[in-house]
Predict the structure.
Amino acid sequence: MKKNPATLSDIARKLNISISTVSRALHDHPAISQSTKSRVIKLAEKLNYQPNMLALSLLNKKTNTIGIIVPEITSYFFSSIINGVQDLVNDAGYRLIISQSEESFEKEKEILDTLSKVRVDGFLVSPTSETHNAHHFNKLIESGTPLVIFDRDCTGFNADKVLVDDYDGAFQAVEYLIKTGCRRIAHITGPSKLSISRHRLHGYLDALKKYDIPKVDDLIIPVEGFTPEFGVEAAKAMMEFPELPDAIFAINDGIAIGAMYVIKEAGIQIPNQVSVIGFDDEPHSSYFIPPLTSVWQPVYDMGLLSARILLSKLKGKKSSEARYEMLKPELIVRASSREL
Amino acid sequence: MKKNPATLSDIARKLNISISTVSRALHDHPAISQSTKSRVIKLAEKLNYQPNMLALSLLNKKTNTIGIIVPEITSYFFSSIINGVQDLVNDAGYRLIISQSEESFEKEKEILDTLSKVRVDGFLVSPTSETHNAHHFNKLIESGTPLVIFDRDCTGFNADKVLVDDYDGAFQAVEYLIKTGCRRIAHITGPSKLSISRHRLHGYLDALKKYDIPKVDDLIIPVEGFTPEFGVEAAKAMMEFPELPDAIFAINDGIAIGAMYVIKEAGIQIPNQVSVIGFDDEPHSSYFIPPLTSVWQPVYDMGLLSARILLSKLKGKKSSEARYEMLKPELIVRASSREL
DNA sequence: TACATTTATGCAAAGGTTTGCATAAGTTAT
DNA sequence: ATAACTTATGCAAACCTTTGCATAAATGTA
């Protein structure tokens, strides 16, 4: 059933002219007569001619395609970044191939590999939690394919990076809790391999230190994932404590929401007895009761900026210094935390 | 800085053998001597040779790529479908190009166009709310590129389709409300151009009819979008009614959540005074208090099935009848609605 | 020795496009 | 009438790969 798409030579044959003439006619080349042009254009339309980008890319050594690799697309966080990227690169005439690494290092390498084979012009990647060396990235860069890392740092690897200041976001959140009178502040932390988990934990600890609040190991509760289920699990554990915390700073909104659920079900008042703060400021978070205080991240802008940097590399900007951009998050105070 | 990737001829030149020999050596062709093979393989590795898929695709008239077009990727709904698709097509050796139409017909056509130019092998598309003719789809199919429609119907267009029985989902929800004693049931409906909105509205109306409950026009509240803000808006309007409804069936969870927020803030009891049911069963929905009753859709399976159908077309299945698959949704009862 | 067979390799075409250079016809100026 | 120029078109190479067919050398057989 597969008819072959029309080609230049199809048009040329039917019109008894050469392929080059057809090509030039379609590009409105000045050396082609008007009459020929119109004949060609008419037939091209009739045959539904579409230039074969494969041939073109092969010729130009350029696909006008960029590849983006994220751990997952299901989250609001990554899909919003992608939106930023998409908007910018499309306007610049590039296509975007979105791939999911599913937090697997192997898969990340595999994707990098297949996308190299299809000759994407550049890469945007947010490394997996398993990614601890950068051989595969370096190989790519050495071969001249530009690459920009975003959101998650890959320490020791020198490249263009666009990150969010997770440390600062966490610090802001915890400092706010302290200023509103909380002293026994728990932190539900994410996978320790992840740079963002470490940075947020660090921010939490430094905020405590600044106000001379002793760190209590039991109040730092590690969980394996980012979904509400893990928040439920952590909160249930917390309920067994001899003394409840008076605040919870969760690694993200999903966890915070799970924790809030357990707390409210137990009849504990938020924020009177326990304040809760999340991270990411997801769209639904403000519709819980009480609405969730959260650290907002400039997701869309992170996408835009990452894309802009990549595009400038593609435009042949002599790779000066690697750019290192650190975007500032912002604490959005709502009713799940006490007032100042 | 862009070094050209190694090619077969690079290897051939350095080894003083022909390109064909190199190609065959890398494919472990029996007619090539072991010694040659190992020399070739070694050098290929050293040069980091990667076959150029552009050349290959050009030769084979096949890119092993399929394109999927969704209105947006930010929602849990579409991103989960994409996951289903991704998992299946990757296993089958295909790449996936994800594009967003942003509910714009023009953009949909544009995407179809550029993806045709890069010669994707097949399409998966969930049409925009503006898509009311199928010329562009038909042109594609005529040219022999298979296409599967999913989630949103495009009536009058005969093609392979994988849909969810929205009518049935709505009917189930409303029937449940009636059986639990609700009589004054409001429906917050989505954009009327969208097949899913119409079908859900229809299910709502037919359920009322079955139980001889008169339709009250004021109780059908149309909104323009799917985010909680619209739910807030609709619920606020509802608050002005001389008599409150005793149940709300919302077009989706986002709307339901926004409505619940307003209702709870107003001190009205859910579900004692007002039951609320949403649609989509998003991950966060069960963590609201009360947890939201919602119509679950087999999103991942819809992705799988759509992809499976497309792949079978690509495998050269003689296009028999167009397949029309209607998946069944399921009402997940939680505490935002009364017990039976 | 002559012929058949095996083993290893190379040639060239095909896939679709662009573009520098060559060519052909037609026009203008001398 | 000839040179010089304009105008319109075509040739062929390049991008990279696969593969049917041809070739060459080496080995085996009668």
Q: What stands out?
A: The mean pLDDT of chain B is 94.
